[in-house]
Structure prediction request, 89 residues.
Amino acid sequence: MGIIGTIVVGLVVGVLARFLLPGEQKMGVILTILLGVGGSLLAGFAGQAMGWYAAGQGAGWIASVIGAIVLLFVVQKLRAGGGSDGGAK
Prediction:
């Protein structure tokens, strides 16, 4: 798949992940594309580690969206924890 195909898939996966995860995500188009591409990569690596995909085989759409949701969730938690009082309770 060429670079344009990767960008389009990243955009679609990123938009789906942002739609499915509740809450407000403040990110533009570029970060949404990077989220989708990162989710696809995460799903591919995790699928290969679990034996679901062969090396070089891309993850499916559903796995890519789930990977992007996981990444988005982690980013939200890191952003929320960044402005805290250092974890003191």
Summary: The mean pLDDT is 83. The helical segments are 3-20, 29-49, 61-82. DSSP finds three helices and no strands in the chain. The CA atoms of residues 5 and 15 lie 15 Å apart.
